[in-house]
Specification:
mainly beta; six-stranded antiparallel sheet; 112 residues; 34% strand; single chain
Length: 112
């Protein structure tokens, strides 16, 4: 099944195609940056303007490792800007696809 591309921006990072968009979350008052790889292996949601800056991994792969398929939340090691730009989207994709460790959020209440 293909990805809906209408209303989404395309970005190429490391010879892979990703689509991204910002939308209001259905269950909270937060806007969320959503990123999906063309093959749907990497699926990220990044709530914007929250106290704790983090990303939600929803795909099959995160940090070059296969995931358990559950939503996992990770603390971002960098600041989320007030305005989402392609440069920030690229930075988030690079961080999410590099082979390094990430700090998973456990036991901390997060809004999304």
């Amino acid at each position: 099944m293909s990805i809906r591309t209408k209303g989404r921006r395309k970005i190429i990072v490391g010879n892979k195609v990703y689509f991204w968009y910002v939308a209001l979350d259905d269950d909270s008052p937060y806007n969320v940056l959503n990123i999906v790889s063309e093959d749907k292996c990497l699926i990220l949601s990044c709530p914007l303007q929250t106290e704790l800056e983090y990303v939600i991994s929803k795909g099959r792969v995160f940090k070059t490792k296969e995931t358990d398929g559950c939503w996992n939340r990770y603390i971002l090691p960098f600041h989320i800007p007030d305005v989402v730009t392609p440069k920030f989207v690229e930075q988030l994709i690079d961080w999410s696809t590099e082979d390094t460790e990430a700090v998973q959020i456990n036991g901390i209440e997060v809004p999304v």
